[in-house]
Design brief:
The protein is α/β, with parallel strands linked by helices. Helices cover 30% and strands 21% of the residues. The strands form two sheets. Strands 8, 9, 10, 11, 12, 13, 14 and 15 form an eight-stranded mixed β-sheet that branches. Strands 3-2-1-4-5-6-7 form a seven-stranded parallel β-sheet, sandwiched between helices. β8, α10 and β9 (239-244) form a beta-alpha-beta unit.
């Protein structure tokens, strides 16, 4: 009998860090032929007939119950934590475990996305691992309070491991997220020239790039301010900044471009078509515009977790760049940094959180200096 692994994380097809980690790991385990694999996918309602569920060679289960009456009851609750946690599977995981009877459980998420598993009666009855991104000091309080109850306590970077060890939890260890090196490599100069021509980027344009989820912890205003100062120092050069991200969430990038008085034609982004799947790197012209390839009305949107580029296309995006710059306040691993290194780009990385490992001797990043500030509420 094959051992059954219940991998509780984002869906393997999601264009998130957790999703891409799941895709790489589950693909590897599936190819060994040794395991029966179940992906309990956060943020998705369980629907066995879903086209996305059928696309994966392993079993995929949505972490949100399809019981609408149950969901209505939860959503009317005054307990905001309960309302938030339902998308991670808090109200459904016990039913899934009872039905699937896994031999091994691995929960890979932010700590609050799996902490309810630790309190479940089955957690210590089967080999279980909690694999979480702890990326700022002080360490998330619940992650410390529950540490003694987690035998296999994995963190994504040595930054968190060192702090947990300092606090007396020596059993915590670093297990890095998976990066599939199959897709990421440096293209030859001819291929790069053809790529740049396709996207209307002059061969002599000095292009800096940033691949990121448009979140508060990604230092977009600082990067734009830095680009503005750099631009003023080299007025004779053709330069551009590529922000490979989604403009519908997070930072209001068009307003920031105007605020810093940057030529909007120099700030590029990546559009993807929901119909033909092709992509185009160009200045921002709004969300849901007509596809420049197949003409699909409203088909072109900036890349995101639901409508994003493939790994092959992402490798091409990296190869359009001359330099990769990843400024952030904190992060669990920041997989794009490793992908950029695989394409042999010079990388600039904030020397804090998981970025410390990227700036160690032998990692060959240029460290971005930083000054401390605290976030209201969490004190991070």
């Amino acid at each position: 009998k094959k051992k059954k692994i219940l991998f509780h994380t984002d869906m393997a097809l999601a264009k998130t860090g957790f999703g891409r980690n799941a895709k790489a790991l589950l693909t590897y385990l599936y190819k060994t032929g040794k395991y029966e694999l179940v992906n309990l996918a956060c943020g998705i309602v369980d629907n066995p007939d879903s086209e996305d569920f059928v696309r994966t060679p392993w079993k995929t289960i949505g972490a949100i119950t399809s019981d609408q009456s149950k969901l209505n009851e939860i959503n009317s609750s005054t307990d905001q934590k309960r309302v938030r946690d339902v998308s991670y599977g808090s109200e459904y995981i016990n039913e899934v475990v009872k039905r699937e009877k896994p031999d091994i459980y691995i929960g890979a998420q932010d700590f609050w996305g799996v902490d309810f598993s630790i309190r479940s009666t089955w957690f210590k009855k089967i080999p279980s691992a909690i694999w979480v991104t702890l990326d700022s000091l002080p360490i998330f309080e619940a992650a410390i309070k529950n540490a003694k109850d987690i035998e296999n306590y994995w963190v994504w970077s040595s930054f968190a491991e060192k702090e947990l060890h300092r606090l007396g939890y020596d059993h915590a260890k670093t297990v890095h997220g998976i990066v599939d090196e199959t897709f990421f490599k440096k293209l030859d100069n001819n291929e790069k020239s053809i790529l740049r021509a396709k996207h209307g980027i002059d061969s002599d344009t000095f292009l800096t790039g940033f691949v990121f989820r448009n979140q508060l912890r990604k230092s977009v205003p600082n990067l734009l301010e830095g680009y503005k100062k750099f631009r003023e120092k080299v007025p004779e050069r053709k330069t551009a900044l590529l922000l490979h991200t989604n403009y519908s969430e997070g930072w209001g990038i068009p307003k920031l471009i105007t605020e810093y008085e940057i030529d909007e034609k120099e700030i590029l982004t990546t559009y993807v078509c929901k119909k033909c799947g092709d992509y185009k790197v160009m200045p921002f012209h709004g969300q849901e515009i007509g596809c420049v390839y197949c003409g699909e009305a409203g088909g072109f949107s900036t890349t995101g977790v639901n409508q994003g580029v493939t790994e092959v296309q992402l490798n091409e995006v990296y190869n359009l760049m001359d330099v990769y710059c990843h400024p952030f306040t904190s992060g669990g691993q920041e997989i794009p940094i490793q992908e950029a290194k695989m394409t042999e780009l010079i990388t600039l990385v904030t020397n804090y959180s998981c970025g410390e490992e990227c700036c160690e001797h032998g990692a060959y990043s240029l460290p971005l200096d930083w000054s401390e500030y605290r976030e209201h509420g969490t004190q991070f």
